[in-house]
Amino acid sequence: MTRLLYSLFMRLAQPLLRRKLRQRGRQEPGYLAAIEERFGHYAASAPARQGMTVWVHAVSLGETRACAVLVSRLRQQLPDMRLLLTHGTATGRAEGASLLQSGDIQSWQPWDTPAAVQRFLDHFKPSIGILMETEIWPNLVAGCQRRGVPLVLANARLSDKSLQQAQRLAWLARPAYRSLRAVWAQTQADAQRLTQLGAPVQGVFGNLKFDATPNPEQLATGRAWGSRAGRPVVMFASSREGEEEILLQFLESLRPLAPVGSVQVAINSIANDIQWLIVPRHPQRFEAVAALIEQHGFAVSRRSNWDDGPIRGEAADASTIWLGDSLGEMALYYGLADVALLGGSFAPLGGQNLIEAAACACPVVMGPYTFNFAEAAELAEAAGAALRAPSLADAVAVAQTLVSDPAAHAGRVNAAAGFSRAHRGAVEKTVAAVAALLGQQAVDAL
Fold first, then answer.
1. Are 334 and 407 members of one domain?
2. Is residue 326 part of a domain?
3. I need a surface site. Which of 47, 90, 157, 194 has the fewest CB within 10 A?
4. Which residue has the higher pLDDT, 306 or 135?
5. 98 with 52, same domain?
6. What are the helix (H) ranges across 360-422?
7. At what angle do helices 170-178 and 160-168 cross, to 10 degrees?
8. 224 in the same domain as 180
9. What's the longest Cα–Cα distance across the chain?
10. Which candidate, 419, 408, 377, places its Cα nearest to that of 232?
């Protein structure tokens, strides 16, 4: 009865979803693509099935990047597999297109009504479903269970905040988690929280993101550009709305009053000795952040206007802030930076993942809010790959101190690289578990 009420709500909410998609589509046209797929209506028949269909659901950009290494290893283990890759966001879908090979399929995640889920399963007929990290939808789980499609949660994480929210909806959440075939958690703490919701946790495998290898060409290019910057580069990585304003206000407050008619000059040693690079988390905010930089009296140099690095002359101009306004180039930005401030951690947003920074040997300064990636943040801090600061202003000072001490900076770089190497191995465990589950599924079908 409870899921029936939920299903009724989801059905009645469909017009609201359509309106939201149209609104988001004004800023991100990707949301306007193939809208009917979200409701289980497909323009063409599914391609003829060749081998098993392995369905991987990566809702957004971060999950899509995390699943890349898993998909690569699954292809080696299951050479006849066809990939069905689904998403919920435009950035996830755009990133996921690079993972497709001939015969693969990409689609939107079905809206969680029984009818849309049934049409999705009828159309694609997946052999297994692998949900990445956090995505649990009651009707989707129930539909897979009813059809005998093993549905697992891989690279699973659950914060204290998310646990509390799920417990408030325990009548809906518990049956969904309990009906999963298997859950493979990132950390022991995640496993304990997931178990409280009834999830069948069958292993703690670590985080797949440690197994990802940064794009070597991007990394080399970033380091080459950084060597020509003329000063250390500090990046605000994956910054979130409101955080750029705090940083820019702080930097602006340090600017000395200049005599009338003089050229606007650098701020003081904190800014003058550092080249600032801001890389917003969400691409739809690139324009707004560029405007914000100019509103605070700085010039802006955008990655989209660079050819072979920042435009000539900008490396010598401390009043210019670089803006990373491109997708899929985080390895380039981490290669370019000497230190990264961790976006999402200076406001109560939970922080972004620092694993990619460590893989690129870029030390991180993080704020007080890292509850979305609590264990990774604690381990990185303990390993010396990350430092913590109580505020963004303090983080700026920590970064400046670090880049002004070559020996200390080199030690942090080595610590970041070592931290990344020490935590690899989740992908092999996950692939082995998927293969075992598929093997058992074949036996059960006999």
1. yes
2. yes
3. 47
4. 306
5. yes
6. 374-383, 392-403, 406-422
7. 110
8. no
9. 86
10. 408
For helices 426-445 and 61-77, angle between their N-to-C axes, nearest 10 degrees = 60
Q: Where residue 127 sits, what CATH number does that domain have?
A: 3.40.50.11720
Domain count, the chain: 2
Task: Report how far residue 122's alpha carbon sits from residue 118's, in angstroms, rounded to the nearest whole number.
Answer: 6
Give a yes or no: residue 192 inside a domain.
yes
Say yes or no: 161 and 79 in one domain: yes
63 is catalytic: yes
260 lies in some domain = no
Residue 88 backbone phi and psi in degrees, to 5: -115, -20
140-198 residue pLDDT tens:
999 999 999 999 999 999 989 899 999 999 999 999 999 999 999 999 999 999 999 99
Residue 134 has, within 13 A of its CA and on its CB side, a CA count of 18
Query: Do 414 and 429 have their domain in common?
Result: no
Q: Give tens-digit pLDDT for 49-88.
A: 667 999 999 999 889 988 999 999 999 999 999 999 999 9
Cα–Cα distance for residue pair 446/444, rounded to 1 Å: 6
Domain of residue 360, residue span: 216-255+265-422
Cα separation, 316 vs 319, in Å, equals: 9
Kindly state the tokens that stand for 31.
């949301």
Average pLDDT, the chain: 91
pLDDT band (50, 70, 90) for residue 264: very low
Quickly tell me which residue has 């518990």 as its tokens.
174
How far is Cα 15 from Cα 35, in angstroms, rounded to an integer? 12
At 251 the three-state DSSP class reads: helix
Q: Are residues 193 and 108 in the same domain?
A: yes
The 10 Å Cβ neighbour count of residue 171 is 12
Question: Annotated catalytic residue: which of 37, 63, 133, 356?
Answer: 63
Q: Which DSSP category does 31 fall into?
A: G
Does 331 fall in a domain?
Answer: yes
> 3-class DSSP state for residue 304?
helix
The answer on 157 and 300 residing in a single domain is: no
Q: How many Å is the Cα radius of gyration of the chain?
A: 23
User: Per the structure block, which two tokens stand in for 35?
Assistant: 């809208």
CB 81 within 8 A of CB 70: no
171 and 220 both lie in a single domain = no
Task: Spell out the residues 6+ positions from residue 116 whose beta carbon is closer than 8 angstroms to its own.
Answer: 38, 39, 40, 110
pLDDT bin (cut points 50, 70, 90) of residue 267 is very low
pLDDT confidence of residue 372: 86
